[in-house]
């Protein structure tokens, strides 16, 4: 792979203003208010995860529209809480999968919560089974989730996902194993986009975060993304607009409500980003658009100069282990 | 492209028996009975199609689950019916599109009905707007429609589509421009698969067809198709089973209800098939599986020896014009 | 696909001056004068097109060098002319094909003339059979028509094609079904390039056009095209120059006589262009080079922002139906 | 992906006899005898792995030719041994990587040993640093390790790797955290090939194994592999033979000493294999060649019907957790 | 690359009978008789080839239809003839190129004649300039030479090429540097096909050859070739037949006159073939079809087991140097 | 291919300053001093090359670390020296191959020396057998030679290769067939990079060159190369840095000692470069970086505007024949 975007110098200061509808904040306030009218009905059931040193709870709670959403809660075996807690969202196609699939932050001594993404999970298999139970799921779209409900912000797929992500926090903060004053949200790619959304919505939602760690985040600066990336998932939207040529303005208006750039402007939590300069899927200019606008109190970004979308991989996990420890100690 | 399947000699006699559940017929009888409890509420509204020699009606009727489904009805301008009628279903990704997009059989002097495919239409754009309004649309699946609801025949996407296709016939047979004794169903690829389904369901549904013309039909002999084709849309199912490895039997059981091989065994209408020997998307052994089992009174198949999925293209349309004229004259 | 060319703002004003030989005009005047020494010998034979609402005439006339060239003339069945007339040229690889293949503008009530492209037709099959009967056809070239005779403007393939296109107008203007005061030329890709050529040659050829509608036109700004497009057909020329490295200047000199930019500077007819911003085959800077230099009395361009070479597809046809009606009404 | 190899029925009984040199056993006996003349000099240094529930030891021992080879030893934090032990070898390109990268079997309560592969590690990064310190490393070869030293079994790269793998067992069986009577070897792809080699060499090396779990193993039935796979790493050998065309017999002779089919014939440990029917990298006929010849006391194979080289992924890990528990309990 | 055709055992005896028209021999006799009515007018002009040890003559002679065809004649500098002579034909896209491009057999001490291929030369550049000056060159075809004139054996491109190849022999046998009793014809790929044609036509043309050395020959067993190869140049014919679907029988009939299988049945010269078992362009079954039917007095074939279309490359040249020396000494 | 780099105007003046360590010169002086402590032990053995007009000597000499390195020495048969001499280095993957493979400059009347590249030769086969006999060869690296020893300039692969290249000159200047006052070094791609290295090291090594002819040279301006080229061999380094993310600075430091830009700054010989503007493997900005900094007394560059990495091919050879003659005559 070669550089496919601006050089690093330009990226450092690249912070285009994106369109934002005047009802942006009320759209999200109303959305969360509505979502919270549904009883969370959170359940935590300890299961046999086949592991000796980790305890795992099967979590179910009512997400957007009251849909049951699944998650895992992993903790060091036999721990009494409350523990500092890492909430993780998955990349596009992923799901919570098997209980032994993703336990790193529990191994590090924290409560580790892993959300299932509604309708997705096809690259994880296993225990992923959160249905996107919404009448809007069947609206005409290109194969893939990026264009599901694109005609209307209220019908857009990520409205349901972002709400699930916030409601998961609502669900876990009250659990005795979780220390509600020490919560970090994180995720890579789509999970990074959701992380930005949660960080941006947290202040108005009354949720305190001690950190947000979006890794090569997706869902940022859509107009630029569609210009420069010819790879899925962004290209699903391009394909949609290549067909329904009269829907370009409608689509970009919808996307503006979900753009990590606009959401991150409302964030307050310290953040550790990562970006890869040869990433054709989440090109660096889209990530820096979000990073440069991110409004959290402290922020830093790890730049991986020769990587594609795998980004920092284990190097970034290693950096996160350090940063999380520092944030939780803080 | 080279040959990617059996040689023609072997194809001529290739007719594997596929598994069929014992409730196959009752499944479909019940499905249609349920579907017919919804009032058709068919509406035909003449629109300005910008054409002088063709009149076009915008059709809406209640399909599966009472969902409004769109179609076009094209006829020679100023004709008084009833006319021999060609009902056409579209290939995967297609939709009814613009009113001036597909009018060939109306140009030939017939009533030409074009069904919109629910949820699809992304390669046609324009006037395609039939929503797959079903709670099942949001069940976990791989991007694409092939795996939507694959867990259960009752939830499977094509149950809704096949019912729409039958209900469209219910809707048009009563229209004064349509001669209900002279109806041919046709379509290419997915449209060919739907054609086979309608031909197979027609006897028990009380519908008479004077012909069925499936062109390089899709949705036939799924087990063979997944073994030999690595191309979408069949490969969407492969990708699903590559992830949810424990769902293989469940998936093939579901697919057996929708297989053009099993449905075609119940058909009675004369048929004109086509097949392309170098077709990597609907490989010839899957098409011949359906053809060799097809139970209609007369049948023939046009073999295109050096073509891929484009099949006979205008040559097959030319052959259909002749065959339709002959069938309607008969 | 992503943007592969300039951003729209820059395109709007991109109008580079291309080299033009001093004998450009005399080259074309002489070419047409020579061509018109051959008797047109136009014949129009009504055939059975298998359609009820369209009448089709098989057209033969003597094109460049007296070669017999084929075309279709479609009109609404039973019409007495003269009718406003649309003359259509095909994209690279296309030909007039089957008589029922392309009848849209006849459906709209016009005379619709479809020219066969000499030597081509391989994607249309059917009734395409216009031979490029010229001694120059066998000059050394890369496979494909783009480099046939590139050594000399007099031997270049498109000299023969452009002359055919003009002579077709000569042939049809005298037909009783054609209203010679109401002629629009159109075509997509190569057909768009031929459209520009005809529009540019029409004034000196004594032909009046009420409109020209080049759709994602090819054959424009060759130097820029070869720099930015790595796709056939432009890349055929690149491949030629990659081999015969000493022929670069010779080739660009030849191409300058056939460039839609230079030809369009001589046009007078109003024009409706289209362009797709992600088109890797006819990149937008090449199209805007032609559009910005186009000298017709009125002009507009439909910009498809997320499309590749399919451009506006049915949306552009829809726009053409409106624009043609307006032009013919004017 | 489609099936690219025999159907499952044929695979079940596919067990071709491969050539085996008469000195096969003495080659390996001599090799191990020589290797054991080097002092193991095994060192185990506890490091900070940033994890709370896992303790990790940085392992160094002298492998083939006395080269220092690295490994990790992970155990549940604070455990007193001896523990049942899983020794894992990595796939081609992998290495031991970061200490927190691969700890699953330690999470399950076992000692988990992870060997670094000499010269490799480029997909893992991090702490991989085992040099292939051999004069033979610089012999002419195709880029990649498959052809390094292919001219002579004594110089072949995998001779060094297989010896490292055996010497690692020599190193760990004496460690107090390891129960030398309860050792399972495992690995995927290249790691599966090494697993077969260790299982085959163990009896003559005086090592007892309670199980071997080769996952989609590589390095099996080279002649068939090169006929059917056009993908690296097997294709590295094809590329070598495409160049040095006179070395075909020499190369196959060398490979016969390292073939998992021949080595597995000497194994005694019970085994759990896995195979994927659409695997283009380790095609199923090569895996079944090894499986059907495997001489261990009990054996079973998990067949993933719609997968490529990812095989069972987390499903197979899940099956291994069960099978390991059972074997260790036995 | 993997095996893409039969295994070697089957290839050894693969000799399908191909259709042959009853006028095959008279077609070629008449063709050559006609061709010989044109005065050869062979000219040999010594040029400055920039080489000290090789003398080069620029050759021009009248080929098919009296078209001037170019060639090089290379000999060791200062030699007095007559010399044993190697006549070489080029692969598809090649041409005689620069005078210093291909001199190997002159370096070996022979007269080395290199024919330019009419219309081709685009991969050689330089001094390639033999025009395919035929009215038939402009007949409708797919880009490329394979389908030029495919409608009729008399119009087919290779009729002109094969005649050129024979006439080149007519031209050189009378040159004082050439020993007419010691001539070998050779070439790779297309050049191998032409070699087979010349070897097959030589007896009836009254030409004696002491050897023919077709290297991975093209133009053999067209029906099989189109079934198994999806690569150009064979695939040019597939593309043609995919378009003009009604021309399949016509095309195969034409090709039967030019098939190396049928022509080789008439050969008498000893032959050295080569074949590559992983060749996707000239698949081994097509080469063995020709080899097994080849009627020359002695024949052998070098099999390259792991090669694609590059075949034996320098290894085969090395073998040819030995075989030519032996044949010439004989 | 399209332009993938700057336009020619910008390239003409593109001369970025690259980092250079302060010990650059001493590193090389020390390296050569060390290398020269090994006895050259050059042997020249005349062999049967199967050619009449060329004599070939099999050359062996002790290169870096005393490793035996192979070469060919070709001269016109029977010549008495001393002759002007061309020393040629091969492209990546190449080797000296068969003795009859590369003799052009001997045909032109010169002594023609062809060096084998240690460890490589896999695209040449035949007589290539120079082993990279170094303990450093087995250091962890990505498959391929570009990253072998990248951790340390002293261990880097090209240190050994560049020394071999200089020592070859040491070996041949004393041979009676070689005129030590008339030596030109040349090579394409990697061979061009080695040419630049030898030209740059020659002054301090006490070697006089009358010319250097790097053809589309590789190994120039590594930082730019990795930004713009996604093709091997440069991309081998990118892949290495994508894995070992913490080694970026170390790697670029190492590479700076081997960069043709820095080495060329020390050259004195006149030079003839070539460059191809569409070259994705050795992009033109990397070549112009070297050209614009090249310090030789005279220099010129042949620009091939429409070529990829094949560059000028035979055209450049033709130009070299002229330029060599001129230089040798000078």
Q: What does this molecule look like?
A:
Six copies of one chain form a homohexamer. The first copy, chain A, is of the alpha/beta class and 330 residues long. Helices cover 33% and strands 19% of the residues of chain A. In chain A, helix 5 (190-205) links the parallel strand 6 (178-188) and strand 7. The radius of gyration of chain A is 18 Å and the shape is globular. Chain E binds chain F through residues 50-54, 76-77, 97-98, 100-101, 103-104, 106-109, 124-126, 313-315, 317-318, 321-322, 325, and chain F through 50-54, 76-77, 97-98, 100-101, 103-104, 106-109, 124-126, 313-315, 317-318, 321-322, 325. Chains A, B, C, D, E, F: This is Cephalosporin-C deacetylase.
Low-confidence regions of chain A: none
State the CATH superfamily name of the domain at 8-23 and 79-88 and 131-329 in chain A. Answer: Alpha/Beta hydrolase fold, catalytic domain
Please provide the count of β strands of chain A. Answer: 9
Count the DSSP helices of chain A: 11
Largest sheet of chain A: 9 strands, mixed
Write the H/E string of chain A, N to C.
HHEEEEHEHEHEHHHHEHEH
The overall pLDDT average of chain A reads 96
Name the biggest interface.
A-B, 33 and 33 residues
Strand order of the largest sheet of chain A: 1-2-3-5-4-6-7-8-9
**Main structural class of chain A:** alpha/beta
- Specify the oligomeric state: homohexamer
CATH class call of the domain at 8-23 and 79-88 and 131-329 in chain A? Alpha Beta
Span of the ends, CA to CA of chain A: 39 Å
Which of globular, elongated, flat, extended, rod-shaped describes the shape of chain A? globular
Query: Over all CA atoms, what is the radius of gyration of chain A?
Result: 18 Å
* Binned strand content of chain A: 15-25%
CATH topology of the domain at 8-23 and 79-88 and 131-329 in chain A: Rossmann fold
**Level of helix content of chain A?**
25-40%
